[in-house]
## 1
Amino acid sequence: MNTKIKILLVEDDFNLGFVIQDQLKSEGYDVALCTDGAEGLQKFNEDHFQICILDVMMPKKDGFTLAKDIRKLDKKIPILFLTAKNQTEDKVTGFSAGGDDYLTKPFSTEEFLLRVKALLRRVDIFDPSESETVYQLGAIQFDSENFKLIYSNAEEKKLTKKEAKILHLLVQNKNKVLTRDIVLNAVWGQDDYFVGRSLDVFITKLRKYLKEDERVTINNIHGVGFKLEIND
């Protein structure tokens, strides 16, 4: 098994989560385990994953809501739901939220691993764009891994972790509207008034850092969110 395959596992039952994580690691997967939906969305924004395995009933953000948020950021990544429920309406809700498969607890290790492998076969898990960390924003380079901007005169601007996270989200969704709630939940894990004001401050700072190239703009979409536009 190729260790490059990273799995996001979000399960609020710590003991079950640990068992599943151990099973996946024994198959050679790299697994990030989160115990609630808010933490799961933050982790999804911090790394590149090839598949998401989400419990449905979780605190802070349930699995269906988390899947909808993930789908706003990535339309293709496979999502497998784990749930104690086996009702048709719940399955319909899961697929409507963007899920690709649905496994009811309790389940066998063999079936679980086969479902994971089947979902991974549907996507190109070795897409080189998954590992991209340096982006060209007009005449400015953004090194997302090292949190810095590199200007055309070779000067560098060091970013804070939150500045880099916000800019990375914008870059991954360039020329598309990114909603405020997705940015707030992905970076802060919540979307209340106070962190909303913090986001506006960070956006103002990022505009200042990018002003060297007038082709690169972060536009406010009133009442919705932001759009990073690069006019070549």
Note: The chain has two domains: 6-128, 133-230.
## 2
Amino acid sequence: MSTPLTVDPAERPAPAFLHGPAKELLIDGAWTAARSGKTFETFDPATGKALASVASAGAEDIDLAVAAARRAFEAPSWADITPYQRSRILLQIADVLEAHAGELAVLDSLDMGGPLWMTRWLVDHSVEVFRHYAGWPTKIYGQTAPSDPSTFNYTLRQPLGVVGAITAWNGPVLQLAWKLGPALATGNTVVAKPAAWSPLSALRIGELLLETDLPHGVVNIVTGDGAVTGEALTNHAGVDKISFTGSLAVGKRILEVSAKDLKRVTLELGGKSPTIVFDDADLEAAAKGAVAGFAQGSGEGCVAGTRIFVQESVREQFRELLLREMKAYTLGDPFHPDTRMGPLASSQHFQRVSAYLDIARDEGGTLETVGESAGLYMPPTLIENVGADARVVREEIFGPVASLMTFADTDDAIAQGNDTIYGLSASVWTTNLERAHRTASGLRAGTVWINAYADMSAGTVPFGGFKQSGIGREHGIEVLDAYTETKTVMVHL
């Protein structure tokens, strides 16, 4: 592989949003500096240059944001609007994001290094998420219960209150949409904290929300690191629910803290997803899907298919197809039209992923790669000759690295696929209908793709994990349970 593709610095986009003073916190419809005056810088991983200074919120700022969200939750301007008005506001949000989709995609590419074609798809998908949730306010029903003639018993579905929405750095706009959409559709208010590595698009969305009829304080955006800002939000007694996407370690911390006041939680955590290729599969299509599973987005995805299992009889043939497909993942600047993979999101993360390659060698693994790392760019890498107990097979690497292993039959494929603490997703490749359904049924994963990888719904089907991949579901009908309480009303007539 040649040197990563570059773009003339003069031709790289420089959104007007990046100019000016430090980016502030959005609290109660107004932009304000952190009470401490502290800021941090966010960097472009492709160039290493600082993009903007951003306010670093502390406990006092979280107090203000949560108080604003509580006032908005109780205010008639939000609590008493009709379902049709709520739907209209969600449609306004979708429209304003769509009008600025190009800018938001550029901000995410600058902030976390994703190729522009990918970040644009994620923004467009986010627009559809808001349009999907715009349909829910008019369809959230309670029930009537059987009772004797002297009583009338019924249930109501009511919002939880203030939601703390904490997103990861690898899909900023999309993850924010996945949390704001259902929270607002069900009548909650939100304090959103984007990841410190990629906060810019969330702040720009905050500006865009001010152009809609969304009442002030319904969505507040606070920025900062997890140890201070995230911890203060998670611990705050005025927050009724935390919806978190991120690492297993932080998810466990949030669950521990939530026990103090029994906050509701939705946790979408890590994964070590299996890609299972049977000998009757379309091997070329499977190879494309398998490499996309661990190389697309530089492997920085919770659903990354980083354990590839191929049936023994076609191992060598499939291996050659994998290596050929890996060569198609051209490294380059996110804004070069031929780039398939951008840089990893930060120098810290690059060092972490690189350390796993050293671990693989120490464990006796053989590494097959299609080029050399340069800067924060890392080519797709396939690890062979490692067993199920190897750290690179057990632990989430979150980079363009996958292990190639074999299986004997369907039962063996299911057993090996399930041999992990995670259970977020899986991909199965076969032309045998019975085998496909049997494998999907046997895998302990929240989503199983058949002859596909990473088909993502805009809201119609649930998404979430088994085991230590998380708690609860985003999307689908199940999302209503995540953002509402059921109240029973019993009337004596």
Note: The mean pLDDT is 97.
## 3
Amino acid sequence: MKRPLLHAFLPVAILAALLSLIALIPENAELLEPSVCSELPVGRELTGWLGERVQESEAERSILAADTRFSKACYKQLGFDERYPDPRCPLLDVSIVFSGQDMNSSIHRPELCLPSQGFQNLQGSPAEVELSNGVRLPFTRLSSVRPDNNNHSATRHFIHYYLFIGKGHLKSTHLQRVLQDMFDRLFTGTVERWAYFQVGCSWGGSSGISEAEAEQRLRRLIAALLPRIIAWQELPARQRPQPTTR
């Protein structure tokens, strides 16, 4: 009877011992910067798109640690006449949140944060997006609803895609990021400044945009944007763009 009991508690004891080792890492250890640009391209810097920088809100500042950094922008795809945005394109919101020393107060699981901003009925699922450089990346896709600001009796739907970017790491879920962070702290003694990348837009309600169109535009923006801002040379070879052969 003692051996089964020991086997039951051994994994818990090992996990507790590993977690206790995190306390041995200096609190002020230098953060390794993530493999992503610190600023999103704006204006016409991203081919085929018009971007405008957006300031983070006071609410975002108040709930996150003081050393949290932000880069936010909104985008519209340019039409056939590239002087003007496509009038059918919804406004796409992109944000990168860079963590500070304390991960718990810098980056939160989106499934917990979005409800505090009024998003309801969140449904998460894995999704894969092919980028313009041929790389296929895993994401988490979130669908949700929120009251329409222009018609409070109506509902507007939202789609968000997100992933986490570390120093040479791309993780599509909060759990994957946490496990990688624990591994780095315990076995390499390093602390990463993780970047939470999110792109989203709304459809339905007074927008006149269908879910299929919103989905298509989101994927187009992700496909164009990530090859531009990720430092691919810092990632494992299997995640880098492969050279074309003739």
Note: The mean pLDDT is 84.
## 4
Amino acid sequence: MEFGLSEEQNLLVDSVHKFLDTSALLPRVKKFAEDGNDADIWQGLIDMGLGGLLIPETQGGVGLGFVEAALIAELLGKHVTPSPFLGTAVLLPSVLNAVDPDSSLLGEITAGTVRCGIGLSEANGARLGAAIVQRGGKLNGRALFVIDAAATVYLVADAKQCLYLVDAKANGVTTWRLSTVDATRPVVELTLNNTPARRLSSDPEVLLRALDIGRVMLAADTLGAASNMIEQAVIYAGQREQFGRPIATFQAVKHMCAEMAAELEPCRAFVWYAAHALNELPGEARLTACHLKAHISEVGKRIAKTATEVHGGMGFTDLVGLHYWYKRIGFNRQVLGTPEHLREQAAKLQGLVA
């Protein structure tokens, strides 16, 4: 039995990697941090068919699975790519495939005419009294840290764990840009005041599965970002000289780079397995997603710290730009559940705590 990527999956990875290597280099990321416009990058990904990655071929999509989605998420993290991939190409299609597989929205997602923001943070616990409630068919309340400031629709959850789709231009919708460490994924506070919305699901299991999927994709993103930070640290260590020789020849620096690589590499198989479980092993998917994101969030944090230390003072400069990867890893760690929260959830799933 062979465990690894298929030829088709490798071709997918190669083609997306080549596109990002030309269209999402660090200068382009820095430009996005200034103007917030990722239209050219997202259109390029749409032209490659990634908007319809999880959408069935009968609806005009590619009809692939979560393993392929995780591979793309890893590449996006590796290039700190600004894009609405998580909400638009993964979470919204996943929910629609489950509750309304004939929805016309699936075709719009494939065509790139819909961008979906993710307003599910309150599903992990309300902050500062934030919550969405449904009264008389209208939504009221607010959601914090909604990803994608340029969204045309928002996927939100109410206090009863029902999922809704809210048009960004609907009556009563107000957004306020929030400041976070990650400049590659702008977030907003979404306020709803008697806002009409389309209820997608009243089944809490649909919301919980969406959270599982989101956690696996964020973990894959962290895997890619941490992998890039290791590569940058190794390259820099080979170029930076102290006492007349590259710092890569110093035993301490060698150990730092080797330990980063040794700690991260097993996480790749973990990501692949968690994505596979989403497709094929529903009984294991939730527990695996919780363990994965909790573990890789901690690994990513340590690698971000160590890679920055290898760079010395240069690691903190905008010239090198290492902070974009550092902050993306930090943002991923917090979204859709911190390691502490996810370990508690995993313990409950296993009956280890009440």
Note: The radius of gyration is 20 Å.
